[in-house]
Design brief:
The protein is an alpha/beta fold. The protein is built from 14 helices and 20 strands.
Length: 503
């Protein structure tokens, strides 16, 4: 799905007659299921909507869906909202982030179902979930995330327009809707890149697509090709990409609005296909390795959203792009690489290539002495073992950086969990022939990877490493607003972090 084909999203105070599908909620309040957001005058062909919903077994279980026919061939999709707040006072006190995530999930689940309904033309969908000024952005995000489908269902018209019904009005509501649309759009763009087959998306082509994405924005772009990487000493990126017939690239994006007094650096791993190099992966471990550039897609998408919102924050973004392949020119175990800035690294395992390309980009980013450095990568299977497939890891050297990231993740509705970088981990990376080795022993592999990256961040620079190896690519059935395939994990957190730094 090209982002140009995403449906339009509009705001309305009430339901008019121009819709094909209506999405409403079903919430459990004080043990009783109650419909939420049903406009006056809406009734099914079989009678009152709440009676029909009960008869069809509709449930308030979060993201469950039930389709009910309406007169004139229209349909209503009833989406479970989970347990609601028993009183208005409890609703007022309820954590806004939790309520927003519930709305995001409901909108996403409803649009997933609507997108698969039959019709003669693209469907006009009204989303009436009792949105407030506080949840409006989340509903818009969820709607665009839920409607996303990299390969649209054959013979189905899909969704052409979305109207979000909300009592709130005015500039504040329009701004919230705009933020939600921007966020949903950039995440769907990142999903497109991640889902693209690796014979079509490789370092050079991905760099070109990034350049196209920032055209017409306030974002500047610089691309290092293989000659420029050699000239400027990016030995890690060159080593990882050396085994491929498709040479590596480094893409720098710069957003520097007037008056910005803080500087955020974002670094994303962009290994467009990871075979493991000479440390070849087993065949069944390569199926999803087109997604090993999810970190690069995430930082580019976040930068697009930050610039679109005109946040008063300077942002420098690096996408380190390489294809890790085995060949006569591939880097070997025991090779020593000279990284950007001069530090030497002994390669221990060519399947630990992500930290190598990231280290070059981190060292480059730190030259500008940013206020905060965030790197994000599908870095280690060890993080998946530790946290599962839906939770990302965050590792830092200080509590303040960890709190900043975790607060942003909570506000964005994304599950992150802090993992430590134990003091003794650095000793595992000692080398007899270089400044540092790329890997240590097997236990605590995610922590060792973070300890390696930390070596390229100068003391005193706030830094956090986000390992999204688990949630970046969903190999199971869709759920909530999450499709099968690329998810766009981490992007909402990066945007929320930037908003926090911008003030």
């Amino acid at each position: 799905m090209s982002v140009q084909s995403l449906p339009t999203v509009n705001l309305a105070a009430g339901l008019d007659d121009d819709f094909d599908v209506l999405i409403v909620g079903l919430s459990s309040t004080a043990g009783e299921d109650r419909l939420v957001g049903v406009p006056d005058g809406v009734a099914s062909t079989a009678g009152p909507l709440d009676d029909v919903a009960r008869g069809l077994g509709a449930t308030s279980k979060e993201s469950s869906t039930t389709v009910v026919p309406l007169p004139g061939g229209r349909r209503v999709v009833i989406v479970g909202l989970g347990a609601g707040d028993a009183t208005a006072e409890e609703a007022r006190r309820a954590d806004m982030a939790r309520r927003a995530e519930r709305a995001r999930r409901a909108a996403g689940a409803g649009l997933r179902v609507a997108g698969g309904l039959p019709g003669d033309a693209p469907l006009r969908v009204a989303v009436s979930l009792g949105a407030t000024a506080g949840t409006l952005q989340a509903v818009a995000e969820g709607a665009l995330l839920g409607v996303y489908n990299y390969r649209p269902a054959s013979g189905k018209p899909g969704v052409g327009a979305i109207t979000v019904i909300c009592d709130a009005a005015g500039d504040t509501a329009e701004a919230a809707l705009s933020r939600g649309v921007t966020c949903g759009t950039v995440i769907d763009q990142a999903r497109d890149w991640i889902n693209t087959p690796p014979n079509l998306l490789y370092p050079e082509s991905f760099a070109g697509l990034i350049g196209q994405a920032v055209e017409g924005t306030d974002i500047g772009v610089t691309v290092w090709d293989e000659a420029a990487l050699q000239r400027d000493g990016f030995g890690g990126i060159l080593a990882v990409g050396g085994g491929s017939a498709r040479p590596p690239r480094l893409v720098e994006l710069t957003y520097a609005p007037a008056g910005a007094d803080k500087h955020l650096a974002l670094i994303g791993k962009g290994v467009t296909f990871d075979s493991g190099g000479l440390n070849l992966k087993p065949g069944d471990s390569m199926d999803t390795m087109k997604s090993d550039m999810s970190g690069a897609a995430s930082v580019v998408a976040a930068t697009l959203a930050i610039a679109a919102a005109r946040l008063p924050l300077r942002v420098t973004t690096y996408a380190a792009l390489a294809e890790n392949m085995p060949s006569g020119s591939a880097f070997r175990a025991s090779d020593v690489m000279t990284m950007f800035g001069g530090r030497t690294v002994e390669n221990s395992n060519s399947d630990a290539e992500g930290r190598i390309v990231m280290a070059d980009a981190i060292a480059k980013a730190c030259q500008a002495n940013p206020d905060m450095v965030i790197d994000i990568a599908t870095l280690t299977g060890a993080c998946v073992v530790a946290l599962g497939e839906r939770v990302a890891g965050v590792m830092t050297r200080d509590d303040a950086s960890a709190e900043l990231v975790l607060s942003a993740a909570a506000a964005a509705g994304e599950p992150f969990w802090r993992l430590p970088i134990p003091e003794e981990t650095r000793a595992k990376l000692d080398s007899d022939v270089a400044d540092i080795k790329s890997t240590g022993d097997r236990p605590g592999g995610a922590l060792t990877a973070a300890a390696f990256l930390a070596e390229f961040v100068p003391d005193g620079v706030a830094w956090a490493h986000l390992d999204i190896a688990g949630p970046a690519f969903n190999t199971h059935e869709p759920y909530h607003y999450v499709p099968k395939g690329a998810t766009g994990a981490g992007i909402r957190t990066l945007i929320a972090l930037a908003e926090s730094m911008a003030g």
